Amino acid sequence: MTYASHSFNNISDDRFSYRFHQSQPRKVNLALYYETLCPDSQSFILDHLVRVFDTDLKFIVNLHLVPFGNARIFPHNKTVNCQHGSLECYYNTIEACALKVWPLTLNFPFIHCVETRLHQKDKDTNVWQLCANHLGLNPGSIKKCCTTGLGNKLILHNAEETSKLNPPLKYLPWVTVNDEPLFRDYNNVINYICNAYRGNPKPSACKTTSSIPQSPSLCDPPNLEK
Predict the structure, then answer these.
(1) What is the DSSP secondary-structure string of 36-104?
(2) Structural domain total, the chain
(3) Residue 73 is part of a domain; what is its CATH number?
């Protein structure tokens, strides 16, 4: 799938308010802890998370994205060491800034575009600017976030949030539905969302779900004892 040919259906600016009923049932909280260059994180965003936005599931989900993953913070100077190198640290910060400065209706198409290009091995620091231009977004907001120190603060915040996960993060992607981790069954996230939602009727996307086998993660934490 390439982003240029992908269209997100009817993403509105009302933060995905669910319109099946006048009285709104509680939405399902979906959280993704990930790394921008982790192949499994990229596949989850491009193959599974995108289905939330392509269907009426978007009306029943509160989405929370946390780019950090298995990165490490050095306490003495607050610098970051990322599992897949400095380019991953760069894009973790870019996407953290996007999540801060743009609403979800804009930042998810942006992140989808960036992850599509990175997944296709387009390992360049200007990928995000190409995506911003493609989507008609002002890259100045991201540049300001990165150059003023806000981006670094966001990454430190993501590091703290990730460190407080209970149970702790074991591999990536780390997906939770209503704060319950899916472990290696994250490929079946749509089933978990549908089962967690208590409204009636359920979204039509829930009628077409099927079980997907679990897969091993390529982004396990590094062995720090080596």
Answers:
(1) TT-HHHHHHIIIIIHHHHHSGGGGSEEEEEEE-TT-EEETTTTEEE-TT-HHHHHHHHHHHHHHHHS-H
(2) 1
(3) 3.40.30.10
Residues near 50 by beta carbon (within 8 Å), at least 6 away in sequence: 1, 6, 112
| Domain carrying residue 200 | 27-208
Write the pLDDT tens digit of every residue in 84-110.
999 999 999 999 999 999 999 999 999
Question: pTM for the full model?
Answer: 0.86
Q: What is the pLDDT of residue 25?
A: 84
Half-sphere exposure of 204 (CA within 13 A, CB side): 4
Mean pLDDT of 42-51: 96
pLDDT at 15: 44
